[in-house]
Amino acid sequence: RAACLPATAGLEPSLCFHVAPYTKTFLQTLGGNLSAVPDLCNIPLNVFCNRTYASDPETEQVVMLTVVGMDAMKNARELLRQILLPRRNDQSWSAEGPDSGFELLGLKWLPRLTRCQAREIT
Fold first, then answer.
1. 88: CB partners within 8 A, 6+ apart
2. Which structural domain, as residue segments, surrounds residue 53?
3. Cβ(121)–Cβ(68) under 8 Å?
4. By the 8 A CB rule, do 88 and 98 touch?
5. Is residue 92 within 8 Å of residue 74, measured between CB atoms?
6. Which superkingdom is the protein from (predicted)?
7. pTM tops 0.70
8. Which pLDDT tens digit goes with each residue over 25-69?
9. How far is residue 105's CA from residue 53's CA, in Å, rounded to a whole number?
10. For the chain, what is the domain count?
């Protein structure tokens, strides 16, 4: 298990992100075209109705966070720090606590949204 940093610890961006040279082989390793949107015509409608996640707020759930705006890239580092390491007034902060922040599972940046994507998040 990885050690947890205290909420006051600063993060070095170079330790948070790994930059890899772009190659077609590397793209295929990651699953192919990352900007492609699945064709919804091939997905049965009941997939969207059957909830496979837990409805109990005390259990872990996956959340997708969408950040939009002209200053999103400027403020992204601070926003991620606030989300991943929330400030606590209680000095006995524990990573096991219910409000210990989020675990970042993945991060994807899109320089612009398609009209369909923009319509989905508004």
1. 7, 99
2. 1-122
3. yes
4. no
5. no
6. Eukaryota
7. no
8. 877 776 777 677 666 666 565 555 544 445 555 666 666 677 766
9. 16
10. 1
